[in-house]
Prior knowledge:
Blueprint: H1 34-84
Amino acid sequence: MLRPKLPDVPTPPTTTVTPQQAQAPASPAGRPVAPYVDVGVGAVAAAVVVGIVLTALLAALAVSAVSVAIAAVVLRSLLSSAHRR
């Protein structure tokens, strides 16, 4: 039978990686970093709370709309059957 001839796969050259020491960036003197972090965390927390409240209001509005629609269908049915009699 015929067998396909596969190309030779070249082997990649081996390289050694030396780990580099990572240094923490030095903060400028006289500028604390913590107040900037607190403002960001507070803003994110406020955005999450506002999102939850708006989602709850939207869900309440949807439930109210469905219940009003069901009540309208029931009343229409009752009134139309009263006119037929």
